[in-house]
Design goal:
Elements (H helix, E strand, L loop, with lengths): L3 E6 L6 H16 L6 E6 L13 H14 L8 E4 L4 H11 L4 H5 L2 H9 L5 H17 L3 E3 L5 H17 L7 E3 L27 H9 L11 H5 L2 H6 L5 H10 L1 H15 L1 H11 L2 H29 L4
Parallel strand pairs: 1-2, 1-4, 2-3, 4-5
Helix pairs in contact: 2-13, 3-6, 6-7, 8-12, 11-12
Bound molecules: tryptophan.
Tryptophan binds next to strand 1, strand 2 and helix 6.
């Protein structure tokens, strides 16, 4: 039986994209007992590449954990840990940096995109994929659950694993498992906090309503098939309902369809929203869960770390 790893950055409250793109599908697999070990990572070091998210990093990590628990994660069944609690990950980042050509990192599309939109680029933005390779390889998980936009990062992890394995066979070569297509946000681009296009499913109802009404739609409601496919409301709704049903709602008009979608989401996530509220106020419980995860993780990674330090003659 394979092991599974997935990770979410601590950039605030997890939004609808996280819940339907990563959290729910992972919990579904865990409940089906398809994997031997399951690693759930809260990537609070990856978050640091964006200044805006440094300030509330600790609280934001709790929010991610609270969302996992609210959606039904049984933390006893998994190894759920916070990246910064495992300094061995950053140790690997350095070893891996020593063998990976930096020119390749400059070609990574997430880096190129960042470069076109920002004047100042810190080193961590460039080495982001190496830190992710450290996350992935340290777990020795065979299956990595990621969004489509992370495939290039996974490819880098595979390259590094192969390179080190040529010296000594230490690492498993990981494979990506992609669950859904990218979950689109209110503007039709990938749902992401930094793009300000999220549906913040754990926030106040008023806020959710505002975000749904922000969904950019076309001037008139539409029944032409090709226009429908590019419609944002249609695409977001499609994650929950069949095409026929949505078309019916859209045909009455966008205002109506948005109202309807809002009520649908509130009732669908009623339990999760309530549980989220419960967990987020239990900081010491959340911290305890993370400590348990870190302890389990530390034990698992020791033999691997010993081997890697040997490879780099740093034992
Ligand atoms: N970079 C991933 C993202 O932005 C998050 C992440 C960090 C991750 N480390 C990981 C995902 C390891 C899977 C495995 O979505």
């Amino acid at each position: 039986m394979d092991n599974l790893l997935t990770g979410i950055k601590s950039t605030g409250r997890p939004h609808l994209g996280h819940v339907i793109g990563i959290i729910s599908p992972t919990i579904f697999l865990i409940n089906k007992e398809m994997f031997h070990k399951q690693f759930i990572l809260i990537a609070n070091l990856h978050t640091l590449t964006n200044y805006n998210f440094i300030k509330n990093n600790k609280t934001n990590s709790y929010k991610i954990l609270a969302a996992w628990l609210a959606c039904g994660l049984d933390y006893k069944k998994v190894i759920c840990y916070r990246q910064s609690d495992i300094p061995e990950i950053t140790e690997l980042l350095w070893f891996f940096s020593a063998i990976f050509p930096y020119n390749r990192l400059k070609l990574v599309h997430s880096f190129k995109e960042y470069k076109t939109n920002n004047k100042i680029i810190n080193t961590a933005t460039l080495t982001y994929p190496i830190l992710m390779a450290a996350d992935i390889l340290i777990s020795k998980a065979e299956i990595i659950l990621v969004g489509k936009d992370q495939l290039q990062h996974l490819e880098i992890a595979r390259k590094i694993a192969k390179k080190i394995n040529q010296i000594k066979r230490i690492f498993t070569i990981p494979k990506a498992k992609i669950f859904t297509k990218l979950i689109k946000g209110t503007d039709g681009k990938k749902m992401s906090k930094s793009k300000k296009n999220i549906i913040d499913i754990f926030s106040k109802k008023k806020q959710i309503k505002k975000q749904i009404f922000k969904i950019k739609t076309q001037n008139k409601f539409l029944n032409e098939e090709n226009k429908l496919l590019t419609d944002n409301l249609y695409n977001i709704y499609l994650n929950f309902a069949g095409s026929k049903k949505i078309k019916k709602k859209l045909n009455v008009g966008y205002q109506h369809a948005k109202e309807e979608f809002y009520s649908f989401l509130i009732s669908k996530f009623k339990k999760e929203r309530k549980l989220y509220k419960y967990y987020i106020n239990k900081k010491s419980k959340l911290e305890k869960i993370l400590k348990i995860g870190a302890t389990k993780m530390k034990e698992i990674i020791q033999p691997t770390m010993k081997q890697v330090r040997n490879v780099f003659d740093c034992s």
